[in-house]
């Protein structure tokens, strides 16, 4: 199961990966989180990481997919970690790409920028439009399809994080875990601790946050690799 990041869509970011020959014969599920892509936009939904994880669980239950290998990018990786803790029967392996592990990311993070707006100002006071102007064309192509309320609440939830944190949850899981980090970024804080806990950390040289676009061959190989 492929899970996208904040303001994204799973098929756009991962369909070309699932089509790689290295993954031939695998059953692939592309899930858009609530409020994103082609999924519903329930007005009463809180869009917390826990609620997103429960939505993924419902999708896997409906698909009859016990023990899925979950590939999560950015916020989708955070949601995947929460899913693995809440429903361990549904997750047999995690492949996380530049996943958010800690609350309160730096001011350069997109979630932080969105969360600085009060919800009303973001949704109806111009914050949504200013955010679309600020992001690049690739991200804008999918972000414009997200519901503004869902985007703001999801970003705010990502900034708040979870208790325990996503990092502590990841460290405590006993399923195989792979973490992909783009070599062009700022690196991965706490890498040694993750590796000591059994997380396989792989740096993809020349890649940025969107490793699946920057080096799809390396990305597909990491997904196909079996522990």
Automatic annotation (TrEMBL):
Residue ranges of domain AB hydrolase-1 in the record: 2-116
Domain of life, source organism: Bacteria
Source organism per UniProt: Streptomyces sparsogenes DSM 40356
Coiled coil: none
GO MF annotations in UniProt: catalytic activity
Official protein name in the record: AB hydrolase-1 domain-containing protein
């Amino acid at each position: 199961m492929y899970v996208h990041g904040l303001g994204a869509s799973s098929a756009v970011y991962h369909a070309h990966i699932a089509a790689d020959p290295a993954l031939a014969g695998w059953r692939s599920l592309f899930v858009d989180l609530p409020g994103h892509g082609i999924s519903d936009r329930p007005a009463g939904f809180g869009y917390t990481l826990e609620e997103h994880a429960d939505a993924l669980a419902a999708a896997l239950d409906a698909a009859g997919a016990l023990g899925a290998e979950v590939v999560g990018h950015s916020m989708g990786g955070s949601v995947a970690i929460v899913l693995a803790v809440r429903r361990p029967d549904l997750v047999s392996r995690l492949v996380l790409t530049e996943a958010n592990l800690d609350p309160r990311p730096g001011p350069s993070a997109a979630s932080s920028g969105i969360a600085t707006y009060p919800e009303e100002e973001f949704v109806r006071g111009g914050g949504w439009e200013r955010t679309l102007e600020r992001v690049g064309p690739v991200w804008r192509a999918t972000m414009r399809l997200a519901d503004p309320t869902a985007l703001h609440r999801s970003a705010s939830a990502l900034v708040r994080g979870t208790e325990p944190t996503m990092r502590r949850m990841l460290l405590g899981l006993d399923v195989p875990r792979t973490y992909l980090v783009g070599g062009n970024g700022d690196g991965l804080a706490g890498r040694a601790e993750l590796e000591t806990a059994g997380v396989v950390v792989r740096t993809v040289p020349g890649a940025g946050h969107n490793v699946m676009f920057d080096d799809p061959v390396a990305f597909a190989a990491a997904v196909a690799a079996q522990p």
